[in-house]
């Protein structure tokens, strides 16, 4: 007598969107990347692993803020010298004397004020005359920061402004978290990598775009880290994932997150011994997204983020799972979502969170929903600032204050 067939195992229920974000951040934080020392020129995109503190007062000495005359006492003043930036002047020891001074130069000891050059004149005897302004025209030592003062905390993303500040504090190197290295595997025999779509094939829009998004989240992605289209076979998926996981901290994949006849991501992850952190999320669009954790033979933890094949859904998976994961890996604080007011209604999605593409009006503090927002469309995304979060069981009405998941854009790129 034949044994009865086993009942199929029901898939796990999708994680709530906020819970999925929290899980992604927590596993990233637990696997935070090592701390390294880097020179300032190599720091852009890294994250501070130690507080940024000053090595001296800022400024370190009294510094002229204008070109003019450093004077002592009342005028007119006899010229006794000249001081340029980089020099150390002799003290002014007598009332009625002055030295010519350049912006940024050290103010001599004994000076009582600085007279602007454009507000000065010469007497027939060659003396300097003029009326100084009431406030001294120089920066005092420690005016910006005291010696040893902590200016930025651990977890601060390093950008050009931070690099410049570190240099002004006297640092040549900083201790930072190593940048996450990412790879991208593009799945799908139907994808074209060049030319227009047609005859049953579509152009791959994610292979060129996802690496750029990842770089804006602070990842290092080289052209050789993008592979695909990977053949729609289980063996090809396992081989591609295994190869990428040898060098990447995070491997993103596009497509194959469901359980169709050519969706091999789940069995490939099983073959690699991966552990799901998140397996589907109750969010629309983008429902079949996933995040898995893989422990290598060397004991190092890597991650696989399964992005849906539909382009907008894939980007939504990036902002939902990959962004908080990378924040954790880099030792940054959990991303806090800004708030804005809905200018127009946005429908809910029942028991699912709805992430709706919006454009931000920065002056009014409002967000406006966009058109062309189907999960396979990219036209709306190209004009968006982020996604408005419409929570489960409700619809968004004009005047409602909602959270906004920002796209990782450069300052000033979008929004009015």
From TrEMBL:
Transmembrane segments: none annotated. It is an enzyme of class 2 (transferase). One of its GO terms (cellular component) is cytosol. Residues 183-328 form the MoaB/Mog domain. Signal peptide: none annotated. The keyword Magnesium applies. GO terms for molecular function: metal ion binding; molybdopterin molybdotransferase activity. Residues 117-137 are annotated as: Disordered. Pathway: Cofactor biosynthesis; molybdopterin biosynthesis. InterPro entries: MoaB/Mog-like_dom_sf (IPR036425), MoaB/Mog_dom (IPR001453), MoeA-like (IPR038987), MoeA_C_domain_IV (IPR005111), MoeA_C_domain_IV_sf (IPR036688), MoeA_linker/N (IPR005110), MoeA_linker/N_sf (IPR036135). Keywords: Magnesium, Metal-binding, Molybdenum, Molybdenum cofactor biosynthesis, Transferase. CDD domains: MoeA. It catalyses: adenylyl-molybdopterin + molybdate = Mo-molybdopterin + AMP + H(+). Its cofactor is Mg(2+). It holds the Pfam family MoeA_N. Its EC number is 2.10.1.1. GO terms for biological process: Mo-molybdopterin cofactor biosynthetic process. Catalyzes the insertion of molybdate into adenylated molybdopterin with the concomitant release of AMP. Belongs to the MoeA family. PANTHER family: GEPHYRIN, MOLYBDOPTERIN BIOSYNTHESIS PROTEIN. This is Molybdopterin molybdenumtransferase.
């Amino acid at each position: 007598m034949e044994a009865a067939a086993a009942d199929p195992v029901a898939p796990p229920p999708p994680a709530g969107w906020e819970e999925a974000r929290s899980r992604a951040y927590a596993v990233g934080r637990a696997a935070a990347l090592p701390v390294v020392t880097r020179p300032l020129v190599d720091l852009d995109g890294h994250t501070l692993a130690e507080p940024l503190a000053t090595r001296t007062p800022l400024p370190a000495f009294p510094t002229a803020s204008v070109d003019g005359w450093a004077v002592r006492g009342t005028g007119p003043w006899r010229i006794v010298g000249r001081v340029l930036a980089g020099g150390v002047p002799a003290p002014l020891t007598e009332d009625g004397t002055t030295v010519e001074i350049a912006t940024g130069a050290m103010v001599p000891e004994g000076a009582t004020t600085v007279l602007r050059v454009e507000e000065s004149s010469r007497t027939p005897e060659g003396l300097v005359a003029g009326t100084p302004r009431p406030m001294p025209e120089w920066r005092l030592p420690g005016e910006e920061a005291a010696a040893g003062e902590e200016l930025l905390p651990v977890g601060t993303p390093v950008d050009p402004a931070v690099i410049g500040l570190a240099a002004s504090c006297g640092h040549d190197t900083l201790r930072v978290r190593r940048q996450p290295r990412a790879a991208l595997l593009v799945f799908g025999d139907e994808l074209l990598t060049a030319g227009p779509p047609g005859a049953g094939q579509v152009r791959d829009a994610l292979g060129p775009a996802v690496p750029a998004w990842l770089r804006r989240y602070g990842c290092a992605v080289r052209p050789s880290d993008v592979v695909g289209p990977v053949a729609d076979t289980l063996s090809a998926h396992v081989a591609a994932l295994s190869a990428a996981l040898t060098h990447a901290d995070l491997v993103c994949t596009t497509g194959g997150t469901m359980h169709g006849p050519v969706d091999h991501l789940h069995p490939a992850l099983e073959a690699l011994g991966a552990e799901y952190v998140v397996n589907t999320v109750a969010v629309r669009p983008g429902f079949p997204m996933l995040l898995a954790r893989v422990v290598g033979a060397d004991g190092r933890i890597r991650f696989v983020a399964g992005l849906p094949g539909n382009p907008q859904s894939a980007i939504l998976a990036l902002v939902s799972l990959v962004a908080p994961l990378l924040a954790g890996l880099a030792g940054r604080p959990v991303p806090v979502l800004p708030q804005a007011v809905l200018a127009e209604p946005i429908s809910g999605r029942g028991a699912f969170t709805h992430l709706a593409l919006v454009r931000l009006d920065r002056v009014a503090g409002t967000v406006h929903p966009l058109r062309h927002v189907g999960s396979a469309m990219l036209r709306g995304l190209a004009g968006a600032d982020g996604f408005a979060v419409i929570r489960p069981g409700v619809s968004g009405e004009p005047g409602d204050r909602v959270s906004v998941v920002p796209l990782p854009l450069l300052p000033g790129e979008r929004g009015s």
